């Protein structure tokens, strides 16, 4: 695990492809107690409303994180964001999140939604840093272990206060 020294990793963000799925599943297994199966990721590659991108090290090309979101007309839903356990705390999640917001603006999105486990303090801090607002709680929504989901929303109008 890389120490949280504040050093930043520069990544290249590109569309995911099928050759990436094995590595993505490794990161997924590190980071989630109920990881998505390989098929879920494969299906997202060709789904017409899905945006499935990876962040790779600019030198080694190693995949360090990934993000999946859907854009449905003027609404965006975040479905996945994860960073390799060795690379957390180095600004990669923030870069993937910033990419999502840029894509939202480019595509005329007005509202963004995401859900997160109540205990996931790191992710919640990231979302709140980008001005997402808590709008709802779904009781016992997640399995393994059972836990509430917090629903967050961001309205994209004049968002120059959002970090890039
Ligand atoms: C959540 C996650 C994607 C964040 O990615 P990351 O690369 O570690 O995050 P960054 O280094 O870009 O940090 C961005 C901000 O998030 C917050 N943050 C992220 N992880 C944190 C942690 N463990 N503790 C506290 N704050 C954290 C901080 O506010 C940080 O900003 P700062 O460095 O300016 O203080 C990553 O930790 C991860 O993969 N977690 C497991 C999977 C997961 O929970 N995904 C979200 C499911 S809803």
What is the share of helical residues?
A: 25-40%
Global structural class? alpha+beta
Gross morphology is globular
Strand order of the largest sheet: 1-2-3-4-5-7-6
Helix and strand pattern? EHHEEEHEHEE
Beta-strand segment tally: 7
Radius of gyration: 15 Å
CATH topology: Aminopeptidase
Unreliable parts: 1-6
Which CATH top level class fits? Alpha Beta
CATH homologous superfamily heading: Gcn5-related N-acetyltransferase (GNAT)
Number of domains: 1
Give the rounded overall mean pLDDT: 92
> How many helices in DSSP terms?
4
| CATH architect. name | 3-Layer(aba) Sandwich
Small ligands present: coenzyme A
Distance from first to last alpha carbon: 26 Å
Largest sheet: 7 strands, mixed
Strand content: 35-45%
Summarize the structure.
The chain has 164 residues and is α+β, with helices and mostly antiparallel strands. Helix content is 27%, strand content 35%. The chain binds coenzyme A.
Write the layout of secondary structure elements.
Elements: E1 11-15, H1 21-31, H2 38-46, E2 50-57, E3 63-72, E4 75-83, H3 92-106, E5 111-117, H4 121-129, E6 133-142, E7 147-155
Parallel strand pairs: 4-5
Antiparallel strand pairs: 1-2, 2-3, 3-4, 5-7, 6-7
Bound molecules: coenzyme A.
């Amino acid at each position: 695990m890389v120490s949280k020294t504040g050093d930043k990793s520069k990544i290249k963000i590109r569309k995911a492809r099928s050759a990436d799925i094995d590595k993505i599943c490794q990161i997924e297994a590190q980071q989630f107690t109920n990881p998505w199966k390989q098929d879920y990721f494969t299906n997202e590659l060709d789904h017409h409303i899905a945006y499935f991108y990876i962040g790779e090290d600019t030198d080694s090309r190693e995949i360090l994180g990934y993000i999946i979101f859907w854009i449905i007309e003027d609404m965006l839903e975040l479905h996945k964001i994860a960073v390799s356990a060795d690379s957390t705390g180095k600004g990669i999640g923030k870069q993937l999140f910033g990419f999502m917001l840029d894509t939202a603006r480019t595509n005329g999105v007005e509202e963004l939604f995401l859900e997160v486990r109540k205990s996931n303090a790191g992710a919640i801090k990231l979302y709140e840093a980008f001005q997402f607002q808590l709008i709802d709680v779904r009781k016992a929504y997640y399995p393994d272990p059972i836990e509430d989901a917090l629903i967050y929303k961001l309205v994209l109008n004049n968002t120059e206060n959002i970090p890039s």
